[in-house]
TrEMBL record:
This is Tryptophan synthase alpha chain. GO terms for cellular component: cytosol. It catalyses: (1S,2R)-1-C-(indol-3-yl)glycerol 3-phosphate + L-serine = D-glyceraldehyde 3-phosphate + L-tryptophan + H2O. GO terms for molecular function: tryptophan synthase activity. Belongs to the TrpA family. The keyword Lyase applies. Pathway: Amino-acid biosynthesis; L-tryptophan biosynthesis; L-tryptophan from chorismate: step 5/5. Tetramer of two alpha and two beta chains. Coiled coil: none annotated. SUPFAM superfamilies: Ribulose-phoshate binding barrel (SSF51366). Its EC number is 4.2.1.20. Keywords: Amino-acid biosynthesis, Aromatic amino acid biosynthesis, Lyase, Tryptophan biosynthesis. It comes from Desulforamulus ferrireducens.
Length: 269
């Protein structure tokens, strides 16, 4: 099964169960790769439907201070793409949850697009999210990823025009990542006002699942946003627990993941 098929299968199962997807984010290598592997297993067992693994980068322009600090710590540990792909490959046999990588474009470009997609597919990576790669510049990555079954998952923003949304969704696979706010990750804003309008626009353009992220930290926020989408991404709230408790953060991550997933099931969506 390819990564794209793995994501399709996951969303189909969620629809059948009338659940919304919980995508949990953690920065790879923070505080170390051994703990990251344990966090991935914990999140999967606690209800995460997709795990988003952040590739640390020195200039994470879409991320707020919590994930910026996590990237700095992971880079100081020497965490790079090769180590992260090895981590996913090693975790894959005991992990049925799809794993997607969130990376800025420079690390992937420097690694080599073909090499990256070959090794990511071999490792069991389902998809890649690259927030600083505009659709106009994505052709080379798409050409390397699609034949290997790697989903290139685009971000769309409340400020995107309808014409631009159509252009973006035309090349999307896996799901559409909807940015809920006009800002960076981890910011505290009203996350429902803009996502309602954005999801209405997107539903007219694509049948791909819509997953919303940025600014979602609590079960209450997750439940409110999930009214308009097929799932939510929670990142900074989990990364903050790792920042505060390091290798001892498993229990706290487990608890928050369970609380988030509990509000995404059992409702008449």
């Amino acid at each position: 099964m390819t990564g794209i098929e793995h994501l399709q299968q996951t969303f189909a199962a969620l629809r059948e169960r009338q659940e919304k997807a919980l995508v949990t984010y953690v920065t790879a290598g923070d505080p170390d790769l051994t703990t990251t592997a344990r966090l991935m297993q914990t999140m999967a067992q606690s209800g995460a439907d997709i795990i988003e693994l952040g590739v640390p980068f020195s200039d994470p322009s879409a991320d707020g201070p919590v994930i910026q600090r996590a990237s700095t710590r992971a880079l100081a540990n020497g965490t790079g793409l090769a180590e992260i792909l090895h981590l996913v490959s090693a975790a894959r046999p005991g992990l049925s949850t799809p794993v997607v990588l969130m990376s800025y474009y420079n690390p992937v470009l420097q690694y080599g697009l073909t090499r990256f997609c070959q090794e990511a597919a071999a490792a069991g990576v389902a998809g890649v999210i690259i927030p600083d790669l505009p659709v106009e510049e994505a052709g080379a990555l798409l050409a390397a990823a699609i034949p290997r079954g790697i989903a290139v998952i685009p971000l769309v923003a409340p400020t995107s025009t309808t014409q631009r949304l159509a252009k973006i969704v035309a090349v999307a696979q896996g799901f559409i990542y909807c940015v809920t706010v006009t800002g960076i990750t981890g910011t505290s804003q009203s996350v429902t006002e803009e996502i309602a309008g954005l999801s209405r626009q997107l539903r007219e353009l694509t049948e791909l699942p819509l997953v919303a992220g940025f600014g979602i930290a609590t079960p209450d926020q997750a439940a409110r946003v999930a009214q308009y989408t097929d799932g939510v991404v929670v990142g900074s709230a989990l990364v903050r627990l790792v920042e505060q408790q390091g290798e001892n953060s498993l229990q706290a991550v487990d608890q928050l993941t369970r609380e988030l997933k509990n509000v995404l099931v059992g409702k008449n969506w």
